[in-house]
Amino acid sequence: DQQVKQNSPSLSVQEGRISILNCDYTNSMFDYFLWYKKYPAEGPTFLISISSIKDKNEDGRFTVFLNKSAKHLSLHIVPSQPGDSAVYFCAASEDDKIIFGKGTRLHILP
Amino acid sequence: SAVISQKPSRDICQRGTSLTIQCQVDSQVTMMFWYRQQPGQSLTLIATANQGSEATYESGFVIDKFPISRPNLTFSTLTVSNMSPEDSSIYLCSAGQGANYGYTFGSGTRLTVV
Asked: How many whole angstroms separate alpha carbon A62 and alpha carbon A86?
């Protein structure tokens, strides 16, 4: 059973607009949630994380929102730039181990 | 954040043989992990590499198939043993001080078993 779910395999967004990537989870024991970005032939790159006791964390163009009651988090990228085109993985940790979702491929359109 | 060097970057191996993948971190880290990413799939955690003791394996992965060493706080190896074509995958090393800081990943080893 998948504990971290990214139900949208792909998303296309116009350059300059907001990209919203969504993630759902089932395990209420997760203590941190993370977002990673991955380009082809490279390892994932850590973007931003949020503690389970917070509801928002912001870092530059990236903001992560956590709704614990809904077991849902989202990553907002604003404004979206061409270099943001990549696969984005939602991940969650318990006891310092990280479990990944299947990823969402983000296409930024010119 | 830590910088990880992972070797080899790719290899083509005969079935029945073994391959050892190395992961070198440029600073001492508390946690090191090994993941597998099969074609079109997400990253699946194989095991936590424990310094000076046996690795902790996730469900579906066993030590005989994926022996792991971690002799110190900067280095780990993963061996894929008695390989079959089903082992063809990308194997990734990850390391860091804890999940709240985010972990760094190596660039991966693309393994093809023929």
From this structure: 14
